[in-house]
Amino acid sequence: MQQLAGPIKYQEWNLDTAQMSVQEFRDRTGGVMLALHKLQQIFGYVDDSAMPMLGKVFNLSRAEIHGVKSFYHDFKSSKPGKYTLKVCQAEACQAMGSQKLTEDIKAFLKVDFHETTDSGDFTLEPVYCLGNCASSPNIMIDNETYGRVSIEGFKTLADALSKEAV
Ligand code: FES
After folding, report:
1. Confidence band (pLDDT; 50, 70, 90) for 143?
2. Relative to the CA of 127, which ligand 1 atom is closest?
3. What is this structure's pTM?
4. pLDDT score of 164
């Protein structure tokens, strides 16, 4: 297994910082998407208070901004766990048992998709192909992909990551 990296560190949500960080996308094609990505990169999610601010910056209604954000399920509305854990639900991984792995992970972490564990360590999300089909079933933790994952292997990894997160 790969060397463990600590969790990604996000800043606390701050509307002024958010506003400053999206200015560079003001006149860009697809600026709203770029801005949403940037905010998620900095804060780990896009707070609802960003909607009117983005509306002003991009000269769009709040509903239009919200529409873009909610169309793409990758944008989170609340602070994620220290690690974002994605379990592949696409065909090749399914053929290698990802549905059972998903159920076992949910039971182990006591969360469903889009939820965060009580410890605050993991937010569980589905993902549809990580481009690593030859090593199915796959999971991704933050930016790291892990292949041929068993529930036992996952438990060991999760315990190690939880210790890193302290
Ligand atoms: S189907 Fe899971 S990585 Fe491709």
Report:
1. confident
2. 2
3. 0.79
4. 83
CATH node for 83-165: 3.40.30.10
pLDDT for position 28: 94
HSE-CB of 55 using CA atoms within 13 angstroms: 12
CA angle 35, 41, 43 (to 5 degrees): 100
Looking at residue 33, its pLDDT comes to: 96
CA atoms within 13 Å, Cβ hemisphere of 41:
9
pLDDT higher than 70, residue 165: yes
Q: Residue 104: which of 146, 160, 71, 149 has the closest Cα? A: 149
- From-to residues of CATH 3.40.30.10 in the chain: 83-165
Ligand 1 binding pocket mutation candidate from 89, 133, 135, 139 (most atoms within 8 A of CB): 133
* pLDDT at residue 2, as a whole number: 56
> What distance in angstroms lies between residue 137's CA and the mean position of ligand 1's atoms?
7
Kindly give the distance from the C-alpha atom of residue 127 to the centroid of ligand 1, in angstroms, as a whole number. 9
